[in-house]
Amino acid sequence: MLYGKEVFLILDSAKEPNKWEDVASYEFITARLMILILVSLACAIQIPFIYMASLWDLESFSFMWWMLQFFGFVMATNLGAVILAIIAQDSATKVGEIQSQAFTADFMVGIETLTKILGEFNKTATTEGESLHDQIEEFAPQFYRLGLQYLRTHALPSEEPPSLDELGVAQPDDYHHEEELFDAKKPKT
Asked: CA torsion sign, 50 to 51 to 52 to 53?
């Protein structure tokens, strides 16, 4: 039976309060930035290939000149693909780290527990001819109050009740049998 601190450990966000913000706000490389990287690489690599064509005395816009430029373009796109793959792998690694911090085993157990509870609620509602979906607005506040009172009750430390002396209650007179306490003929006063 879960109660007190165990319930709070199921979905505990206190350990790492910003883990949900990390999951929600992670930024990936955009398509615009990918295109910018590829065009920059293409320009940086294509310029030496244009210069190489003049060193080899290739006629501008001839078949060989175009082949050389094509090789430069292929080289630039391959290099761009490798760089973008490295960036993508780095992003995947970071996302994996963020998700492993957020979706811990405790979190998964909590989700499984809540799913089982909801399944039992739905099963019971169906058995009774009700729709849990239709009654959720009425049911949720009552369940919240019940759960909150349960947690508050079980979160309090248990204490020994005060003794009769601490309460100021006098000790009963001496008696030998319980019948003496309830004997109407000889009342003890």
From this structure: positive
Question: Is 51 exposed, middle or buried, given 0-12, 13-18 or 19+ CB atoms closer than 10 A?
Answer: exposed
Q: Is residue 114 part of a domain?
A: yes
What pLDDT tens digit does each residue of the chain (189 aa) get? 344 444 444 445 455 566 667 666 767 788 898 899 989 999 999 999 899 998 999 999 999 999 999 999 999 999 999 999 999 899 889 888 888 887 888 888 888 999 998 899 889 888 988 888 888 888 788 888 998 888 888 777 777 888 888 888 887 777 677 776 665 566 555
Instruction: Determine the structural domain holding residue 125 and report its residue range.
Output: 5-154
What own/partner pairs with CB < 8 Å and gap ≥ 24 does 22-27 have?
22/98, 22/101, 22/102, 23/98, 23/99, 23/102, 26/94, 26/95, 26/98
Cα–chain center distance at 147: 22
Alpha-carbon dihedral angle through residues 147, 104, 133, 121, given to the nearest 10 degrees: -60
**Domains in the chain: how many in total?**
1
pTM exceeding the 0.70 threshold for the entire prediction: no
Q: Is the residue at 173 inside a domain?
A: no
